[in-house]
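Catalogue entry: protein
Contents: sequence, fold tokens
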Amino acid sequence: MVDKRVLERIADSAQIRKGDRVLEIGAGDGILTEELVNRGAHVIAIEIDGRLFESLRARFPSQQLINADALRVRWPPFDKCVSNPPYSISKKLILKLLQHNFKLGVLTLQKEFAEKLAAKPGEKKYGVVSVCTQLCCDIELLGRIPRNAFRPQPKVDSRLVRLTTRLRLDTGFLSFVREMFQKRNKKVGARRVRELRPEDFLTLYQHNKTRSRPAHCQFPSL
């Protein structure tokens, strides 16, 4: 991302304050990192590319820099996540992010994936990541980001998303929802799995846990 105005918009949306511990996934050449540092944030930047990592280390010696695959490495504690992550890892990244304690996330995502996060029950895009994100967070689609804000320009449209957390994603719940969506057209009461609200999935999950047996989608009345 090379557009200074968009970078400022991202930092504004994250309400960056001095002393915030900010996780940045895929820091790249450090353009967003610089904006965050200039606002007083302590940045935890994860970058998989060794050459880019060395450049970041030279530019930001006082920040916490990690040369690793963000999906494989353990993340240090953080208050906020502000990132322009690779779109190819968006789903896995969001599901990992939701398993951490943090206040706020602002991410640039592919438009179609951003809309999937906010998809409503019954819609075609509604799925596992929709359920988990909506249960754990308040989701705001803040607006589109023009393709010319990037160099080179992507072939897809992008959108800025803000996540304000309510609770932490339980890995058992994630596994349960994945199992449920393997039979997305199965009837649960009067509705199909793909039509259930995030709160309904939580009710079903808690019901299965109280039965003290493996959660193979035993359904109470909803």
